[in-house]
Each structure stands twice: as structure tokens, then as C-alpha cells.
Design goal:
Blueprint: E1 6-11, H1 18-25, E2 30-36, H2 42-49, E3 54-58, H3 64-72, E4 79-83, E5 87-88, H4 91-101, E6 108-111, E7 122-125, E8 132-136, H5 137-143, H6 155-166, E9 170-173, E10 179-180, H7 190-212, H8 214-233, H9 235-238, H10 242-256
Parallel strand pairs: 1-2, 1-4, 2-3, 6-9
Antiparallel strand pairs: 4-8, 5-10, 6-8, 7-9
Helix pairs in contact: 6-7, 7-8, 7-10, 8-10
Length: 274
């Protein structure tokens, strides 16, 4: 396998943030971008300004984990560093992160966002943030990459759960300077609000079913139907967003009926389109 690490970025209408990251890393690392059917300027600008990037354009928005799997399952590199497009980090900090990681026997490493004082450059953990994950490809491919049944939210939790269950190890790497500009990549219109809440809810029940069994997760989903219905009906009094409650209720019903969170074309349900 190629010892040079590959940088992987998943984009979806990310033109407001992704080019800060690409400007810093371009020409210093091998970079792949998988674009989830963007309808902004992301794809066109990458083609014109960053011709050496391996750009994969998807016709459908298949979600974060599934888009990542396209590279993770086919890379020739020993390590792949998966980054959100709204991560801000200097190239030297990535090199520092890689240097520490390579001393470890790991499946995945990530960045610690600790406020408390820590001792040493790293520590073992059972979960890392999906916005910044380094994959030891040979190790993780034994376990399987992201679960294809998850469109969005919790895909890293599910993968880390399987990694720990298999006996492999996950580490936080400390003292790496970075910023995660979460709000800048998350639109706030009603369609996106519904999309986020639906998939947060659905993925939450799906993860609980894998950890605790279908029956327990179904009981929680029934509660989700009731909670979404009641809080939606009394949203003004309870000061709850009725759009979120509708999404919670529908996601709970979809889970109980064992319906897929994807449509027939492979798009995540309710993904924002032109």
C-alpha cells in the first residue's frame, strides 16, 4: 500500500467553507473530494482551481458515510484522513497528527477537543468525531467501513462501536490546533431543519437497535411518535419548533415500519435538491 496518506473531504454545497481548507492543503497532500450532488459552485471551482484533486461527482446525495466509503473501500493508501469541509487546520498540524498516529497500533485516530489538562500526546478512547478521522485502512477494512444504512448523523458512532467491539483501538491525539466551523456549513431554512431532525432521529434509533436490540429501540421510537405528536400540537405553548417535531414523528414511524432512510434513487430522504 502507498505509505503517503490520502486526505478525503466530503462536500455538499460547501463552497462557503471548503476552499479555505483546500487552499491550505493543496499541493502538500494527495487529496480526494467526493461531492454529494452539490448545486453551488463547489465542483466547478475545484475543477478550475485545483486540477490535481481527485474529484468524484455524485448524481445523488448519498450521505456522509456512503460517500466516504467510495474512497475508503478503494484507496491504495495505508492511511486516509477524513475531514469535514469546514475544518480549519494548518498542514503542519496534520503532519504532527500523522506522526503521532503512526507510532500507535490503531484502527482510527482523531482529534481531542479537551478542555481539561491531559498528560501525554494521546490517549485511548471509544469514539472520535466524524469531522476528523484517520483510518488505518488495513485494520478498518477487516471490520467494515461506514454502515451503508445511515444517511447522516451517527455514522462515526456506529463505526467506532464496531471497532471497539472487535478489539481494535481508537485514540485521541492531543495538542493539535484546529477549528470546526460547524454553523457555517449547516443552513437553517425549514427544509434543512426537517432533513437534519429526521435523520438525527432515525439514525439515533438505528444505533440503539444495534447496541441494545430492536425491541428496546422500537419502544423508544413509539415514544418518539408520541413526543413528536404532542410537542407538535402544543408547539407554541411548549416553545418547540413544529417542523422538528413533525420530522421526529415521521422518522420514528419510518423506523418502526423498517423503512429505509433512502429513496429509490439512493438519495437520503428529504435531501435538499434544486
Amino acid at each position: 500500500m502507498n505509505p503517503e496518506p490520502e486526505i478525503l473531504v466530503i462536500s455538499h454545497n460547501s463552497s462557503a467553507v471548503i476552499f479555505n481548507l483546500l487552499d491550505e492543503l493543496y499541493g502538500k497532500f494527495n487529496i480526494s473530494v467526493v461531492d454529494n450532488a452539490s448545486h453551488d459552485s463547489t465542483v466547478e471551482k475545484i475543477k478550475s482551481d485545483y486540477p490535481q484533486i481527485n474529484l468524484i461527482e455524485l448524481k445523488n446525495n448519498i450521505g456522509y458515510g456512503n460517500a466516504s466509503n467510495i474512497i475508503l473501500e478503494n484507496t491504495k493508501s495505508k492511511y486516509v484522513l477524513l475531514l469535514n469541509p469546514d475544518i480549519e487546520i494548518k498542514a503542519e498540524e496534520i503532519l504532527k497528527f500523522l506522526k503521532i498516529s503512526e507510532t500507535l497500533d490503531f484502527a482510527v485516530t482523531g482529534i481531542a477537543n479537551d478542555e481539561q489538562k491531559v498528560v501525554g500526546p494521546y490517549r485511548e478512547t471509544d469514539w472520535v468525531m466524524g469531522c476528523f478521522m484517520l483510518f488505518n485502512i488495513e485494520e478498518v477494512q477487516k471490520i467494515g467501513f461506514f454502515d451503508k444504512n445511515i444517511f447522516l448523523y451517527g455514522e462515526e458512532n456506529e463505526l467506532c462501536f464496531r471497532i471497539i467491539k472487535s478489539g481494535s483501538k481508537i485514540y485521541y491525539i492531543h495538542d493539535i490546533e484546529f477549528k470546526h466551523r460547524v454553523t457555517t456549513s449547516s443552513p437553517s431554512d425549514n427544509q434543512y431543519i426537517f432533513l437534519r431532525k429526521f435523520h438525527q432521529t432515525y439514525s439515533g434509533f438505528y444505533l440503539k437497535s444495534k447496541k441494545y436490540g430492536r425491541i428496546k429501540a422500537a419502544r423508544l421510537a413509539i415514544g418518539g411518535v408520541l413526543k413528536g405528536t404532542i410537542q407538535g400540537a402544543f408547539s407554541k405553548i411548549l416553545k418547540k419548533n413544529p417542523i422538528e417535531q413533525k420530522a421526529r414523528r415521521l422518522a420514528s414511524i419510518y423506523f418502526l415500519l423498517d423503512k429505509s432512510p433512502f429513496d429509490k434513487d439512493g438519495n437520503g430522504l428529504f435531501a435538499v435538491k434544486d
